[in-house]
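Support request, priority: normal
Reporter: lab tech (M.K.)
Component: structure prediction queue

Hi team, I submitted a job for FAD-dependent oxidoreductase from candidate division WOR-3 bacterium yesterday, and the status page still shows it as pending. I've pasted the exact input below so you can check whether something in the sequence is tripping the parser. The sequence length should be 449 residues. Please let me know if I need to resubmit or if it's stuck on your end.
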Amino acid sequence: MDKNYLTEPERKIEIVDSADVIVSGGGPAGVAAAISAAREGVSVILLERYGYLGGLATGGLVILIPHLSDGSQQLQIRGFCEEVIKKLDEVDGALHPNWDEIGSDDPNLIQKWLPYFSVVVEGKIRMSVYVDPEKLKCILSKLIADAGVKLYLHSLVCGVVTKDNKIEGLIFESKEGRKGITGKVIIDTTGDGDILASAGEDYVTFDPYDQTVRSSTVALVFRLGNVNTEKFIEFVQSNRDIYTSLMQELEKNIGFRALPMLSWREDVVWVNNWLLGINPLVVRDLTKAELLLRDSMLKILDFLKKKLPGFQKAYVIDSASQLGIRGSRRLIGKYVFSKEDVFSGGKHPDTIAVFPSITHNTSKEHPLVYLPLRCLLPKRIENLIVAGRCFSSDKFANDLFNLIPHCIAMGQAAGVTAAIAVKEGVNVQNVDHSKVKERLKFQGVFLGE
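Reply from support: The job had stalled in the queue. We restarted it manually and it finished. Here are the results:
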């Protein structure tokens, strides 16, 4: 035996299930893809490695769904994303401006929402939503069940079988061992692009030391309870320079940036953080990040209790059950969405989503952004679609549009495209984009037309 290798004996993998569409990854993009495909009348299986749905929006404790609107009274990101928010509203699971307040410049509203990150942009109210991650898990599970999607939790896809430029099946690991599953169209919503990489598609990755984009960093979010947020807000608004200095002091003490942010509850904050130098595709780096960030958690709590009003009785409620990976693999697909696309305002015949700028309200200098279907389509594999942060893009465009609502929008488009490909018996690259747009609009998606 070669001392550097183990030889795995050849074995047959039992195929335990099959469906028209297989979605790998049950985060925001994957849930949207699975439900949207199922609603188009095809059979769907969703595979998720954890024991819950929602990905970073739930287990990652990234509890902000921002920038659904552009400062006007128009909601740009609609469809499934809007549906989820309204479902959360029904169970008191979200905090956001009233729907009729979108686009307002009322001074009282601005004052109310200014402490909440992403709600006030250039003096206008945006629809940005703070969510209860546990209620969101429940909502997504019910929506998946109601759509008739067959769900496999605790199932990690670990390989693909390809033949003649098509994926014949996926191999996944669970407590039952290694099993196989087959489908006509595969959707990669793993975030890291695990399926596209295993299938041999070309991709690029973020440089984990690149300080020009936030997607080069990772996070381990945690929540603090029993915070007097009224005192916290009052201190920050009255002592902006002192607060900035304190956050710089905290960064110097722990070695990376961390910020306490308001949540959907007035007694809870979540602490976001940005750690450079971690390659999310290397297990030793992932381990290093988990240990370093958890070691820093109590240090951050101690600092906040000593230095910031409102935190004196705070305690750690929980920490994320999964690392917040902001960027890793990006497909090199049929079209690479770029910085030039972001600022040009150019429309595409195959537009499948419209996004507002995340830093400016819509204007000639900062137009709405139109995302083409080709960003989700690989060059070679004929039955694979990607959605979420692994979409085909340069680092700048990806960094702006890999947030939760963008991933949901891409997932919805991927699901609709997959369903049409199945029903018409064509490769995903040959799906009529006008039919995709028609069905997306039927599902409530805004396409700027």
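The chain has two domains: 15-206+328-443, 214-325. DSSP finds twelve helices and 22 strands in the chain. Let us know if anything else looks off. Ticket resolved.
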